[in-house]
Amino acid sequence: MATLAPIATAPLERLHDTWEARPGLYGILATVDHKTIGKRYLVTSLIFLVLGGIEALIMRAQLTHANAHLLSPGAYDQLFTMHGITMIFWYASPVLSGFSNYIWPLMLGSRDMAYPRVNALSYWTFLASGIFIYTALCIGQAPNAGWFAYAPMTLRPFDPGLNMDFYALGLIFLTVSTTIGAINFIGTVMKMRAPGMSLNRLPIFVYGTMTASFAAVFSLPALTVATTYLYFERHFHMHFFDAAQGGSPLLWQHLFWMFGHPWVYIIVLPAMGMVSEMVPTFCRRPLVAYPYVAMSTIATGIIGFGVWVHHMFATGLPGVSMSFFSGASIIIAIPSAIAVFAWIATMWLGTPVWKTPMMFVAGFVVRFVIGGVSGVVTAAVPFDWQVTDTYFVVAHIHYVLIGINVFPVVAAFYYWMPKMTGRMMSETLGKWNFWTMFIGFNLGFFPMHISGLLGMPRRVYTYPASAGWGSVNLITTIGSAVFAVGVLLFVINIFVSLRRGAFAGSNPWHAGTLEWAMESPPPPYNFAVIPIIRSRLPLWEDQLGDETPGMIPGEGHSHVSEGVVLAEGRETFGTSPLEAHPLHVLHMPEDSMFPFLLAVAMLGTAYGLVFSLWWLAILGGIGMLACLIGWLWPRHLVTGERA
Amino acid sequence: MPRLSRRLAPSAGALGSCALAGCTPLNVLAHDGVTGSRETGLGWFLVIVSCAVICIITILVLVAYARSRKRRTRDDAVFAGSSGVPWVMWGGVVIPGIVLLLTFIFTIGTLDAVAAPTRSPAATVKVIGHQWWWEVRYEGTGPSHTVVTANEIHVPVGQPVKLELTTNDVIHSFWVPALAGKTDIIPGQTNTTWIEARHTGVFGGTCGEYCGAQHAHMQMRVIADSPGDFQKWLADEAAPAAKPADPTAADGLRVFMTSGCANCHTIRGTGSGGGVGPDLTHIASRTTIAAGTLPNTQANLMGWILAAQAIKPGSDMPSMPLPSRDLQSLAAYLETLR
Amino acid sequence: MTSVAYDRTIQLGGEGRAPGWWAMVWTIATEAALFGFLLFSFFYLGSQSRSAWPPDGPLKLTLSLPNTILLILSSIAYMWGERGIRAGNQERLRLGLFIAFILGLAFIIIQGIEWSKQPFGAGDGAFGSLFYTITGFHGAHVIIGLCMNVLVQIWAARGTFTRESHLALTNAGMYWHFVDIVWLFVFSSLYISPRLG
Ligand code: HEA
Ligand code: HEA
Ligand code: CUA
Ligand SMILES: [Cu+2]
Fold first, then answer.
1. Domain A1-42+95-267+565-643 sits in which CATH superfamily?
2. Which CATH number does C12-196 carry?
3. Which of C4, C36, C165 is closest, CB to CB, to A567?
4. ipTM, interface predicted TM-score of the complex
5. Which end of chain A is more exposed for a tag (fewer CB within 10 A), N or C?
């Protein structure tokens, strides 16, 4: 047991020098700063949002009226598949990783994530896999069997091009990124909290990403297995899905949805967590029913593993299994309802301040409910037989995905951008942004329920005039265009605020959580002193006093601006998983090129495998091995000093 | 000839299947069948509950907004406020719990009710999904009684009919909204479902699972006949093709047998035995061609034969560049195959 | 250790694992799930199969059973070596690691022979594909484990590990034991379970 003795002032300059990345190219490629990585995640995933959005707009142009001839069927198929996987895999999840990466250490009172180099690797592999999958689009051989790519349509006889090879390898590639990212979050929440930040003082956002990370660790392997089978079946004449050879097309569906359903919660739980951070700030009171919301987050994550068959209701399963999965899918509405009512009660019992993020959050609540109940509608098996694979489901997924992911994400940008850049985003433009997105969204996606009920199947590149779907589709396209203008306003607002936004100061919203304690943008070391936490809302303790949630009488107040400095190299506390007792001083790794090089080697391997350039694949493999060895080599063996 | 194909191609989809003959559209809520109406009943219940939930939440948010206008204090003031837990207990657990339980009971009740017909089915029809058309088989007592047709399923009204669904290529899904929800057709397994139309009429249907480039053009229709009409239709269909009655038709048959058509198509009674494309023995009795892509008219037949790839790109039917005289007699011949 | 604090001293210590240890734990968790899904596929396709499963009758145990024992012994050797360093015994550590390595290597070689002896290939129906994929996945993990072992041996030879500080050793060990335990599941699923039904 060691005891740390006090001294007076924090050596800020020394901290700055130890934590800042080196200037120049090396610093850019080698940095492991979670704030830089977080920002890169955010920017990259926004680019993917725009790419996926443009793909969607082209599709909408084709569907505006009956018998349009803008796109060939093959082009349309590639577009909707790329749209789906771009949005689901390269936008929705990484954007949340971006926020978690940036905000977590600040919120938790730490100086970095648990595994900074892994963090860098996770970003570089995300970027590389995105480049990889878009290579497919550039050479005109993008995946074309829908985002869930049902076998046997994905097998060689029906899809002989490289399309589905890109799909299989691209997803395996991305899975590496997401899995190690998830492990990093778990490690961070277990070890890297400020002393005193026990489980009942963790922000809900942390609960959200944590639950999502656990779910990712256990569900992503199903996707890896399925896509590996797909690649093997396509390349090595193996048989997993081919019924004639003893395989089963349903094996793919089971594996895919065992992954896929948890995944849809993985891409909303952190977003719901962000909402649970913003609602109290703008309602000027702590969140109602915090423990229930925390528990409901975890419950959603767990129940989410038990509902995958609701995507397979029409496959001819036995009645018992359908009843079971229908029941489970209906029950999962309860935890969501708890969260919804916690937010509403916080608004009702607080005094909401209607800043732009709050508008987005309120809009989100309404859309979450619309998307949620349409989920319950499809969970009712016999009715699902009617609406499955129609635009009704397309409406459901956009209400939940845009409603629960995009809207909170935009709100979060308005909320946390001032922290990241030191400048506020424009409120006026923000209000315009909100109303165009809100109106455009509902105009664009609500009619999809109608076209679904009118029997319009999804994934059709054209439809006959006689079907009577013309006017709803016209409205949908107009709404989509309005929504796209909203997204454009948002992007403009980001750029404008970067140059001309008002200065934010450390805590522009007068929020209560720890990330608002340091100046904006935060210094490279985050905290001059490691704070000591005694409540859930350390910055509101002044006003709330002993009523601050999470405070234990007699334990005293949080200390944010005075505390332990830790300035001998890159240091921070390692704390215990439950109570966050400080256990040891951790020496955080220096910047390193290995994550970047490793990702490059992986990209080489992936290209080698997809184009059957075996030499390249092997070269990449050797490169990967070399990078890993270099990475793991103990530092003192290199520098000669003893550990 | 290329000019002809260009002229025909755009008009192709314009006349989708439902344009003709008062076919019931794909509208889910316009039901007729026994299963279809049970499912729709559940659907209405769900829609109403959903709307109620949405309205309540929207009103709560709006009122919270309105109240906040009156209660504004300083932006940076915070207060602890009351716990609010009853909100979550009632709004988040108890009330939705009850509603969801009702939903679940209604769901399994409906599930049970539509699981199997109450009477034994009057007929069994085999439906085989192909990329991108439907093969329909009525297995009779012998080869001469077996009826093979495509894209149109005749059933007797008021009687349950069992459908056995199979495929040899990829997954499709059988869906006739007015009669029953979807049942997937999956390689390697035989899924069954049943339909029962309450009224005579034509019910539109379509493939419900993405199955490749022409998934959009994989419609079909169910025609509910009176039992007498149905038996007559079955007998007519079981008969081999009519012998060509005039020289043009005879010439058409010759073209058919010599231009490669017979490799893929069967016209029973002519010696052709191809199994790649639809059985054409009674092609003229069908209302559409190419799985609902075109109304079955002589002009469309000619356009289709000439330019199938322009009309339905990716289809297994090649464009057949026949001399126009051959084409005309071929189409004339096909027109006689009632 | 450095110290800079405020009006009060802060107590450090107590039992606690390093972040790196947790990283390995969760890596193993996700890998375990991976094998879980592989074995799920095996049982799922087995239950759907209309022909014999495996096609040529249950797989032979002549090589695989002794091989299984080799792998268990290898794990034990590793554990023995690791115990050694915890008592400060460098020699025992090196010996333990070396034995573990040799046994692991033997396992993979015998596994290669086992592959070549099967009457079916990877393209012969679902069973063959699954057999080679699952054992191949496992083999790849053995090879990764062996690579880790080599690294750890090099570091051990250089005296990197001490009684107190040997996280890399513990992590590589956990991985090696995981590879061992997972093999028991793979073995009982592929080799034993068809004999039971
Ligand atoms: C963002 C992700 C997300 C989220 C959060 C959800 C949430 C839910 N989803 Fe959704 N779902 C998808 C993404 C998501 N889904 C996607 C991408 C697909 C399609 C995949 C594809 O085919 O391409 C899909 C498809 C899908 C299907 C299959 C449809 C089909 O293909 O036929 C089903 C069926 O049960 C379903 C159900 C549900 C349910 C019950 C919920 C519940 O979690 C919702 C719970 C929330 C509420 C209900 C609202 C709050 C509650 C209250 C206010 C209380 C009062 C409510 C009542 C009394 C009803 N979803
Ligand atoms: C997070 C997920 C997400 C998001 C955000 C979206 C956003 C949109 N989606 Fe998508 N969608 C899916 C996930 C998502 N979708 C999935 C999973 C599917 C199923 C795929 C499948 O079947 O396999 C699907 C399917 C799908 C379909 C059905 C296709 C079919 O079945 O045939 C349609 C059709 O209208 C559609 C439309 C749209 C539209 C109009 C948007 C709009 O919101 C897009 C808005 C536009 C933008 C975001 C771009 C704005 C930017 C600019 C205009 C330029 C600015 C430029 C610069 C600054 C340089 N989507
Ligand atoms: Cu067949 Cu879609
Ligand atoms: Cu789901």
1. Cytochrome c oxidase-like, subunit I domain (1.20.210.10)
2. 1.20.120.80
3. C4
4. 0.94
5. N
